[in-house]
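User: Please run a holo structure prediction.
Assistant: Happy to. Please share the sequence and the ligand.
User: Here you go; the ligand is guanosine-5'-diphosphate.
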Amino acid sequence: MKINSAEFIISNQDVSKCPSNRLPEYAFIGRSNVGKSSLINMLTDFKSLAKTSGRPGKTQLINHFLINKNWYLVDLPGYGYARVSKSSKAKFQKFITKYFEQREQLVCGFVLVDVRHEPQKIDLEFMEYLGESGIPFSIIFTKADKLKPNALERNVEHYKKVMLDGLWEEIPPYFVTSSTNKAGRDEVLAYIDEINQN
Ligand code: GDP
């Protein structure tokens, strides 16, 4: 898919105030510093569509960007644990779970994980929450350029094994990306394009 236009539309914390037309949307989420803003800028080819910053936990907003005037890219805030948490759902900020549960035009969530790290409990729990809630998602491994090919493959295989040893019977679609060298860009955009065509 060629990106011809990318426009910021609206930021808010309230799912009922998100755009009301029925264009399909794709939401990007992960822990802060995972490389989400860099990935969004890399995918859209706009240098500062999403604001990158080393400061964790900055914005707690749902940001809608209209791409090619026919789909939304949604930049969600980094998730974090609630201090007291009982169910897996209660662990995540309420407006995030509300977004996933109420946003009917959401086609797919992209959960970003840093490919250098051991699978993190919070990421696995967020994916479990999505799975339990019947929300389709894919995994995007970020910062692939930081590892040599062997280590990269080893980490991805390890991640899959941890999921299969846990709750999962199969691995959701996944992409290995780098915002530095644009690895995975064509694959992620082709995936979105293919879903949009159907
Ligand atoms: P966010 O908090 O998830 O939006 O993360 P950012 O996009 O702001 O990135 C956090 C840090 O990781 C910044 O210093 C980025 O330059 C760096 N970073 C993000 N993606 C990549 C990548 O693909 N490769 C490398 N080498 N660094 C990255």
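The chain has a mean pLDDT of 90.
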